[in-house]
Amino acid sequence: MAMNQIKGHNIYIGGIFSLKNKAALARADISHVLSVLHLNEAEKQETFEPYQHLSIGVDDVDDENLLEHFPAAIKFIQSGLDSGRGVLVHCAMGKSRSATICIAYLLHLQPAALTPQSALALVRESRPLCEPNDGFMQQLEVYHEMGCPDDVTDHPAYKRWLYRREVEDSVACGRAPELKSVRFEDEQPMRSQDATGPVIEYRCRKCRYKLATNAFVVPHEEEKKDTAKTSASAECGHLFLHPLTWMRPSLFPSEENTDADATYGAHPDDAPLSGRLTCPNPVCGSNVGKFAWQGLRCSCGGWVVPAIGITKARVDIAKQVNMSRGPRANPAIRLPPGMRAPEANDSGGRGNL
């Protein structure tokens, strides 16, 4: 199939054979060619010599990481458009890999107006056969959730996505992930947007040790049911969390018995796929939840992978009180004179007598 122009943009999408039609390339005034497939050096020299060329060597498989290449591809496409000439994005068939890159560009251009699905619909208006594989569509969703940034590799959402992939690969092999691949969220730098809104604390009900805050909660969707009836038993009984430092002894028990510097990153033979989470307070040690790298079904019906959760019945939930501005006056409590808040009409003196 010939290359097709994406409506409203001087971007063309096609397969490898579109490069054979030199007349069509000349009519489209193509100056930049982006190849999203593996090429040998002979092909690069013979075919792409007349053009500005960028090659991204990836396969059309679900577990291929195309997300990390989005910024470079988008920058290359934009440079071609800024020159006033045309850009060709191609893979083998012009169906999955090239379509994914074009969708990523459209999302980067209009992150608030488009979603991966709506951007795909725009591309399909010009080339109906476009259909990114499921893995690429998930990566587009992650990219869109990030806000379509110019750099993805340092973004926390990208690192979490990589972490989930590594966990899935390990579980598929029937073992827990390696310690070096686990992302302990409380050891990561906090971004300013992560600190907005009220802070909710989750504390061990037995000893009041603070286990987590709402910043580390992993949201999950309830299982959709045909019936509209709900019951108390269908409510979420767990709070699923990102891995936190205090969980290390439960997730990797052998680490506690060896030198941390010597074994960090090693894969303990007895690292369990599932188990219990205990309160890190040494004088408490009560059971506060459980984990399963292979996933757990919540009482609401939702499936969470990986599942690291504390049981709501074993924790107290409370909003964190901000005392940074000093004590606030309670109308039911009369404070000493030095701690009273000034009245709105208080001029600081006795006023006019």
TrEMBL record:
One of its GO terms (cellular component) is nucleus. It comes from the Eukaryota. Its EC number is 3.1.3.48. CDD domains: DSP_fungal_YVH1 (cd14518). Gene3D superfamilies: Protein tyrosine phosphatase superfamily (3.90.190.10). Residues 326-353 are annotated as: Disordered. Residues 2-149 form the Tyrosine-protein phosphatase domain. One of its GO terms (molecular function) is protein tyrosine phosphatase activity. The active site is at 91 (phosphocysteine intermediate). Signal peptide: none annotated. InterPro entries: Dual-sp_phosphatase_cat-dom, DUSP12, Prot-tyrosine_phosphatase-like, Tyr_Pase_AS, Tyr_Pase_dom, TYR_PHOSPHATASE_DUAL_dom. Residues 68-128 form the Tyrosine specific protein phosphatases domain. PROSITE patterns: TYR_PHOSPHATASE_1, TYR_PHOSPHATASE_2, TYR_PHOSPHATASE_DUAL. Keywords: Hydrolase, Protein phosphatase. PANTHER family: DUAL SPECIFICITY PROTEIN PHOSPHATASE 12, DUAL SPECIFICITY PROTEIN PHOSPHATASE 12 FAMILY MEMBER. Belongs to the protein-tyrosine phosphatase family. Non-receptor class dual specificity subfamily. This is protein-tyrosine-phosphatase. The lineage of its organism: Eukaryota, Fungi, Dikarya, Ascomycota, Pezizomycotina.
